[in-house]
Specification:
The chain is mainly alpha-helical and 95 residues long. It has 4 helices and no strands. The radius of gyration is 28 Å and the shape is flat. The relative contact order is 0.04. The mean pLDDT is 84.
Length: 95
């Protein structure tokens, strides 16, 4: 088995250690300030939506339309799948 060159090990640690420290600091920050972050997101949603109710409420009011479009698309693709199968499976035998 070949030993890894020093350069490969050095650059692996040179990249892994700073990103690990950044990730740990980010997790600690989010843990300490989660309620403030959630409140800021809620305020942003209320300020940018049309009725001031928030994006989740706006999207849930339109969910029947989205479900209808997805179901219609699935039905059309299923019909297309079954219509295409017989034309591909017909083989003409040459004698």
């Amino acid at each position: 088995m070949r030993k890894a060159p020093f350069v490969a090990v050095f650059w692996t640690f040179a990249l892994a250690i700073p990103f690990t420290i950044i990730a740990l600091a980010g997790v600690a920050y989010v843990d300490l300030h989660f309620s403030e972050i959630a409140q800021a997101i809620a305020n942003f949603e209320a300020a940018t939506s049309a009725t001031g109710r928030g994006w989740i409420t706006e999207l849930s009011a339109r969910s029947p339309e989205l479900v209808g479009m997805v179901v219609g698309l699935v039905v059309m693709l299923t019909i297309y799948l079954f219509v295409q199968r017989p034309t591909k499976s017909i083989r003409v035998s040459k004698k």
